[in-house]
Amino acid sequence: MRNDPVEQDPPAPAPALPDSPARTPAAGRVPGRALAILAMIGSAACWGSATVMSRDLLYAIPPVTLLVVQLTASVAFLVVLSAPHVFWRYRSRRFARAASIGLLEPGATYTIGLVGLALTTAGSASVIGASEPVLIPLVAFLIFGHRPSRRLVACIAVATLGLVLVSSASAALPGASPLGDLLIVLATLTAATYVVLSARIAGDYPTATLASGQQAVGLAFGLGAFALVAATRLDETGLDALTPGILAYAALSGVVQYALAFWLYLIGLRRFSAGAAGLWLTLIPVFGLLGAWLWLGEVPTLMTLVGAAMIVAAVTLGRGEE
């Protein structure tokens, strides 16, 4: 008989509670504020730089094929990263439900998003993606009734305006597609929903364990999409047509964009609410600009620099929100 399950430490919690997470200090620890901030900045840096890499790779690899290569490398990396926590001990129906959130992101979000990115301009996609920090508090309110503070709403508004300034110049370039833009809108909505749902369970499992489970589900989704594309012959470019160098480049981008980015982001979600976490996402295009300048030689305009400064200022003012 257990009258106080929080304070007692049963010797064998897994057999007694097979549908609950195997709580360990690593699973339940809330990171310090400084670590959470560094994790959020690191995740934005990973996503921003990897977006440049993916944009480069889409010239050589079809979207769904790229997703499968990236997620395969990411899951392998995360399994190794989560091994010290003996991740197989966390098998349960509850963990399966937590991992199933990976159907939203990276599954649906990046399958749809990469197809949309291949159909439209990167600038147009960036403008639409700028709505995610706004959508996150909205989705959190619709699903759970969470009301963001006025300060957080103001900071998100300033950051979103900065995002629009950063992306507006490239969005005006020819090549934008209504269908591609619609797919990016759908991908942004699924990404916002992922953040809201993952914020509820981020502290229940070791971060690498949760990320590996979610991305394994996302990989299964991507493999299903890959099989559909192959069966319908929408794209006949096979893996055998890719050089080892391209495959290695794609695998590296997958580790950066999925393994490291999601691992760091889930660490931050242990401390920050979904709405506050969304504010840090506005740093992604700032790092994307830096990566495009260093990697692709793209020189930012004055408008993009002003927008980037607005984003950094908004994040600085809103960093006290948790």
TrEMBL record:
It is found in: Cell membrane. SUPFAM superfamilies: Multidrug resistance efflux transporter EmrE. It is a multi-pass membrane protein. InterPro entries: Diverse_Substrate_Transporter, EamA_dom, EmrE-like. Keywords: Cell membrane, Membrane, Transmembrane, Transmembrane helix. Residues 8-18 have a biased composition (Pro residues). It comes from the Bacteria. Its main location: membrane. Residues 1-24 are annotated as: Disordered. One of its GO terms (cellular component) is plasma membrane. The chain crosses the membrane at residues 34-53, 59-83, 95-119, 125-145, 152-176, 182-203, 215-234, 246-266, 278-296, 302-320. Residues 35-167, 179-317 form the EamA domain. PANTHER family: EAMA DOMAIN-CONTAINING PROTEIN, OS03G0707200 PROTEIN-RELATED. This is EamA domain-containing protein. It comes from Salinarimonas ramus. The lineage of its organism: Bacteria, Pseudomonadati, Pseudomonadota, Alphaproteobacteria, Hyphomicrobiales.
